[in-house]
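Consider this today:
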Amino acid sequence: MSRQERIFLVGPMGCGKSSIGKSLALVLERPFLDLDEVIVREAGMSIPEIFEKEGERGFRVRETAALRSSLKHQAITATGGGIVTTPENLGILKDHGIVCYLTADAETSYRRTLKDNGRPMIATDDRKGRLEQLLKVRDPLYRSICDFTVDSAAHSVRECVELIKKALAKCRG
C-alpha cells in the first residue's frame, strides 16, 4: 500500500479534523477513521476515563497502537491533537501517509471547544491559556511532518475539503 493511499489530518483541538475528515471521506469515497473514536471503542471507556485511570502516558500508548492499526486501511484519518507529542508517531505519520495540517489559532480552538468538557488536556480554569500553550509546543511538530496546511479557521468545512483536494492533486502530481 503506497503512502499516498492514506491521508492523515493533524492539528490542534477544535480545528475540525473530524468534521472535515468525514466530509473529505465522502467526497473522495474513502473510509473515515477517527483515532479518538477507535481508542474509546477499544478501551471501553471515554477519553477522560482513560486519562483518569491510566494518565496521559496510558492514553498516548493507546493512541500509538490505534495509529499503527489504522495503517491497515486506505482511509482519511483524523488524529488527536496531541498525536505529535509521541516521537514514534511523527515517523509513522510522515512515512505512511500524506499529512494535512489543519491550522487554527488558539482563539478559534477556544471558541470551538468551549462547551466540550470531554477534553482532559484543557480541563483547567484557563482553557484559552492552555490551548495557547499546547499550540506553541505542537505547531512546530505539526509543521515538521505535514505535506501541506489548510487554515480551518479561515474557511468553511466545504472550502477546506476543496483546498485539501487541490493540495492532494499536487502531492500526487
Notes: The chain is about 55% helix and 10% strand. The beta strands are 7-10, 32-34, 76-78, 98-103, 148-151. The chain has a mean pLDDT of 92.
